[in-house]
Amino acid sequence: MIDPAAAADEQLSRYMAERGLKHTRQRSLIVQTFVRAGGHSSVDEILATVKRQDARVSVATVYRTMKLLADCGVATALDFGDGQVRYEPAAGRHHHDHLVCTSCGRIVEFENDRIEALQQTVAKRHGFQVSSHRMELYGTCRDCLASGRAPPS
Amino acid sequence: MIDPAAAADEQLSRYMAERGLKHTRQRSLIVQTFVRAGGHSSVDEILATVKRQDARVSVATVYRTMKLLADCGVATALDFGDGQVRYEPAAGRHHHDHLVCTSCGRIVEFENDRIEALQQTVAKRHGFQVSSHRMELYGTCRDCLASGRAPPS
DNA sequence: CTCAGTGCAAAGTCTTTGCACGATT
DNA sequence: AATCGTGCAAAGACTTTGCACTGAG
Description:
The structure is a homodimer.
Chain A: H1 4-18, H2 25-37, E1 41-42, H3 43-53, H4 59-71, E2 75-78, E3 86-89, E4 97-101, E5 107-110, H5 113-125, E6 129-140, H6 142-146
Helix pairs in contact in A: 1-2, 2-3, 2-4, 3-4
The first copy, chain A, binds a DNA duplex through helix 2 and helix 4.
């Protein structure tokens, strides 16, 4: 089990077997495509890649499958405010947040325990019990800064 | 100038005067409605309130006006991931982030300089120059915890 | 053989836009 | 009077859904 795509497929299989869902060719193809993409994929992107192997797969199936993956813990839904949902593999990964380059779209992940701790403190101060959060830092990445690509002001 | 709604209207007037835009009845009505709502309003909510005073105002005008307000610094656009843009008054306000109750929808604002500082540190470590960020903590508010409203698991 | 899954196209949201009419400067 | 703004409805982008057919178990 060295291949993460195969691992995800396995995890999905177990989840489905447990509740009488079916392991179809399309689902298998979508999971593997998604995992191999490495992260932050939109449904459109996944569909485009999937179609190279099977042109008859429909958007609807990708939407339905990604939702399924989110439910069974294989994928996490992201929203970078660009009007479409994105997904990243979740399997065995620690929580993290994102740096988003507004020039080239590059996405870098980071985690910072001190920020997380402070968030808990803030929440407690207001009587909230936090169940999740989202944090994205938008700006210009190293490469875009270096190449002088102007930050869209 | 004690009334913030009037103040915002003024600010908008100046902005418009500077660039030959027109100060219409609709715009005035929308700004005041928006400011009086106090914050985190969706276009739909603003429209509903506006229509009580003038039923003939259209959605399009509210969308256009809110965009104008965002451009002139009177409003800030928010995205809580619920599929619609929200706006809050920006005039003279310091940056802040949000706690969102997933049970009752309540929104509490907070600011925390230490978190902001840590964000800068993280960004720098990755070579990013941050221009903006968003951070929302989702969970259950004090009241919902007290009244036993189950956090939607 | 049965029931879940799929493809397709229609429908649903939220938001934007084209256009002729109306209102402000 | 000259333009900008407005209302309306159509169009767009993304996502969901109804339905008949297909295919996995």
